[in-house]
Design goal:
This protein has helices at about 55-60, 65-80; strands at about 10-15, 20-25, 35, 40-50. It is α+β, with helices and mostly antiparallel strands.
Length: about 80
Amino acid sequence: MKPGIHPAYGPVVFRDRAANYAFLTRSTMTSDKTIEWEDGNTYPVVDVEVSHVSHPFYTGTARVLDTAGRVERFERRYGRRGAN
């Protein structure tokens, strides 16, 4: 890599506040907040709203929307388009 043009790449802890879960990885993200990790070292911590632990797609709680049923229900309620 060309020196001097890339951001610093180092260990960072990402913490999912909704699921009370944190994981250590490497990233170019930075933070003023720090956390002491399980290995005894202190790392910058980035708080995230959603991770693979709390996202409905990964947890299996995602709902599949029945769009065909919604359209049919709308047409029954308000009539078909152009029926006037």
